[in-house]
Specification:
The protein is about 55% helix and about 10% strand. It has about 130 residues and is mainly alpha-helical. It has a single domain, classed as Winged helix-like DNA-binding domain superfamily/Winged helix DNA-binding domain (Arc Repressor Mutant, subunit A, Orthogonal Bundle). Strands 1-3-2 form a 3-stranded antiparallel β-sheet. Helix 1 packs antiparallel against helix 4. The protein is globular.
Length: about 130
């Protein structure tokens, strides 16, 4: 029984940072992404994101796949999305109990324009009907 709680603690510690939650949110909504894609979507520097991605990998929340010079990250298991949704729901309920205004939805992402990664370049060249 203790090992189950250890695994739960490993996962929740890995996700216990706002930037890591944002990374998981992007991967949940957009699928596999490289660091430059996450940099574009979230507005953080590559080195900063890489540190957080390393922590998410240690916690087995994300997995990495190398393709040429790029490393692509994806959720290790889709059930992580349910954990993210449960945390958002709990945070909203706690805010309401405190009498605070409703929390903004966490999936608001910025974008600095088209992402320069090879995967996005191919996507941008596809006709709209195939995207």
């Amino acid at each position: 029984m203790t090992s189950g709680f250890r695994q739960m603690a490993l996962i929740t510690r890995a996700m216990a940072h706002p930037v890591r939650l944002q990374i998981v949110d992007v991967l949940a909504h957009e699928g596999e992404a490289c660091v430059c894609h996450l940099e574009n979507r979230l507005g953080y520097r590559q080195a900063y994101l890489s540190q957080h991605l390393a922590r998410l990998r240690q916690g087995e929340v994300v997995r990495a796949r190398r393709e040429g010079l790029n490393v692509y990250y994806s959720l290790a298991d889709p059930s992580v999305v349910e954990l993210l949704q449960a945390a958002a729901y709990a945070a909203e309920r706690l805010a309401i109990r405190r009498g605070a205004p409703p929390l903004p939805r966490p999936s608001k992402r910025c974008s600095a324009g088209p992402c320069p990664c090879p995967k996005c370049e191919v996507h941008e060249r596809l006709p709209l009907a195939q995207r």
